[in-house]
Amino acid sequence: MSRENTSMSPMASNVTVDRCFSADVYPHQHDQWSAANQGLTLISLSCIFCRKLVSIITDWFAANPGDRTNELDISRTHVVVSLETDWHTVTRNKDGLVDEKAHSDRIRISCSIPRLDDNDPGQSQHLTFFLQRYEESSDDVCYHCPSEDAISPKLQPYAGRQRPIVADLTLFKRWKEMCEEIHGAKCSQIFKGTPNIRPRVIDVERRCLTFAEENDQWVCLSYVWGKAKTLRLLKENIQTFSQPGALSPEVLPNITEDALQVTKGLGERYLWVDSLCIVQDDDQDKAQFISRMDSIYTLATVVIISSTCTDANTPLAGVKPGSRRQEQEPFKIRDVTLVQSLDPSLGVKVDLRTGRAAGYLGETIWDTRAWTLQERFLASRSLVFTAEQVFWECEEAFWCEDSFREILNISPDPHRTSLCAGELNLSWNSDIVTFDHFYRVLLEDYSGRALSFDSDGLNAFLGIIGALERSTAERFFWGMPTAFLESALAWGHRSHALRRRHGVQTLSQDQSQFPSWSWVGWTSDGQTKLANQNLTMEALGLRFYRVSDDGSTMTEMRQNANFNSEVDLLVEGSKLPNRSSRPHEVSMQDLPTNPSISPSSLLCFWTASAHLTVTSRHSVDDASDSSTWEATLSQGSDRFIQVSWSHTAPSLKTGDSVELVAVAQNRGNWDAGHIDNGAIGVMLISWDSKGDIASREGFAWIAIRDWTSLREREWKLVVLG
Hints:
InterPro entries: HET. The protein has 14 helices and 31 strands. The termini are far apart. α10 (about 370-375) runs parallel beside α12 (about 460-470). The protein has three domains: about 10-135, no CATH class; about 180-330 and about 355-420, no CATH class; about 475-720, no CATH class. The chain is of the alpha+beta class. The strands form seven sheets. Strands 22, 23, 24, 25, 26, 27, 28, 29, 30 and 31 form a ten-stranded antiparallel beta sheet that branches. Strands 7-6-9-8-10-13-14-15 form an eight-stranded mixed beta sheet, with helices on both faces. A five-stranded antiparallel beta sheet has the order 3-4-5-12-11, covered by helices on one side.
């Protein structure tokens, strides 16, 4: 085994691992080396691999000085090395039959670095690095090779390659051309967009604003505005910015100028950037184009994603010299040459089902913002800029700068995506099962993201709603699918730090307040993720009504969920009348004459109601904060009710009388509480001072046996605001 320079920094000599790995490069007989043996200080100078581990870790420390690393105890670094192997189908004949499979190998290096004077593993800094096989010929691979010749016996698919420190824009253009030529309609428009919307765009050749013509194509930029003062389109400068040459490099923010250069490199003429293509001080212009945001991103040829930006002054990494720092240095162990991957090392998400790395964005501000979720979701083709390399994502391929993946007859890597930590690897299909999965995953991800303004609570999700509506037969009302309202109303959350959303829906004609019954009426400032029921669960059979858009009539929202007409759990065990003899319909005359909330926010339905008493409050985690307490309910002194809260009302006190209305049922398992033989979903409500409009205060599940034993249930009209 070869030896390297024996000098080591004091920091490097303190890093320890559990054993020497040099003898087991790409060891198919080992899945993982665990921390079973006594630590070995890495001064084994004959072990190139161990020295490389030290170099990788210490290089990261050197590149991240300051508060992030000052508190870390590198001498107690724990290293685990594992091998990730993914097999991919290869088709070689015109019939599309499988001839063989190709595999991609990557060595994953997982590091846990504790904080100084802290033995709590949960407080450690976790880093993940990857090494991959390197073949020098892959640096100069011909991207124009036909698919039947794409795999050369001399070139291993997925081999690592050295990316240039300044990005080669011709590679990105070739990626786009390959996708357009080979994938065609599969990637041209996953979701349907409204044609001929003619957005305002930047003409990258003339450097001015213009409107796209009917058949024009454009590129979109997805980024984070941040808090820095930046150039915006206003009423006062729109005429100036429409003059050729007005948007010079000296005028444009760094990120916009770099995106302009990438757009030109892609061979495209027009670029859409929200801050410069929507008049920021014109409510009418904002309403017009924000409502078309889904089509703007859906119809874009490519969406450029700046995943590492903190504000508009951040450059796109790799476009200009000096914006990327990490050099790749291949090294050899025995007869295998390896090179470090350029994936982010922080915040690597691992798919618990497969044990493989699922995403590659790591810890980025871009991935925490509410607006950026729909921008990524709607993109048919994405060019994702991370700190050290660029990735291409479309429906049919995943390519990146640091490995040879442009192999047209190999299926895309299903474990590599920038969207929802890999939860949306499922290809889009307009059937209800796919719709259900996408809606719940997107809603949960969105609800945990940050917004600068409460008033954008629905606006930043409207693009997703519009795309789902045009691609299916479903319709939405305040972010809820109208055909599955029972299960949609059963939303809960994973903590108790929830508050009502302030402000009004700015894009509505009557500036409507956010309703309490919808998830959009609540926020947790990015700290809570919602949990939703499966939309297709069996329904109770409620009929829901809303005021029409013009405010003149009451409209029923037909339900498509499964419904057993022979079972009536709403009134079973009570003296209430059966379905055929009790009221269900709601009319305009049933509404209060002067409601305290806009009629467009109201949800109306008849259901069974029960009054109970709070008998005790208890903490769910031994915390003194009352917002983490849950309540036990009873009806009478001898009848205690089994309750599983999914949305707790922290204001409840022992002795309070509460009203619960039935809105859903669940005969399966759910994270909110495993109640045998099924449960009834009940909404805790309160009424305004006139007793006209009800508000949601919480949500719980009650065992069916307990619900059907409740006395004095009442059949009543509920008008939720």
